[in-house]
Amino acid sequence: MLKNLAAIVTGSTSGIGLSIADALAANGADVMLNGFGDAGAIEKERAGLEQRHGIKARYNGADMTKPEEIRALVSAATKAFGKVDIIVNNAGIQHVAPIEEFPEEKWDAIIAINLTSAFHMTKAAFAGMKARKFGRIINIASAHALVASPFKSAYVTAKHGLLGFTKTVALEGAEFGVTCNAICPGYVKTPLVEKQIPDTAKARGMTEEEVVQKVILEAQPTKKFVTVEDVAALAVYLAGPNSSSMTGAAYQIDGGWVAK
Ligand code: NAD
Question: Is position 187 annotated as part of the catalytic site?
Fold first, then answer.
């Protein structure tokens, strides 16, 4: 379905991004991996994608807080694959704390990685997509792009902003075959969620098990985590040929969370 297309997935060394990279490759796309982690483990993932799916996979460790590294990432993918057709802006971090205790450097990092990097990625690839009359920009937002939770001020702000950016890119790309959509997952069991459990427990005065049951699973009427595979399948659909009229939208995949 995605043969002869080339994708960059930011933050694809772990969790949702890794699953999306695998699913895009399984559908025939060349994939540029990005993100932090152990060099040997990343190389194993990269080589595994090529072996399993018969596509080209590359890795670039651009730091999403650094615009010049983001531009170099897009250039490296263009050099490796000839073009960039699909961008998945997925890299993200979280920090959980009350506003009066929220570290300023965490606020700045969350806005830079979860929001501003999507602007730099899009800016670097947009002209090429418009010239070729094809592009798919998929922003991994969150249920927190639509509703708030206490103690996640920077994250909720970044994700709401990402949805605004999604709509603007959709309008600017609409006549050029370039779509832009946001996927809004509920809780997915990845390192990002596992790491926030102790801080949420502290902020809310709960045990970690209470956080899982009363905060995380309580948010989702299905009472279960969303899976990385479900998010990846939606990303593949949005990257594919049948989604050309789907643009500027937020697709919830949240077990019913924001329906309440
Ligand atoms: P994760 O921690 O498993 O993965 C995050 C990825 O981002 C990793 O590859 C990491 O190396 C990378 N990353 C972090 N900082 C970076 C930087 N400065 N530059 C480049 N890469 C960087 O987390 P995840 O849960 O898979 O999250 C992926 C995305 O999904 C995030 O945008 C997150 O906000 C969003 N999301 C997650 C959930 C969830 O419940 N897990 C829910 C909704 C939305």
Answer: no
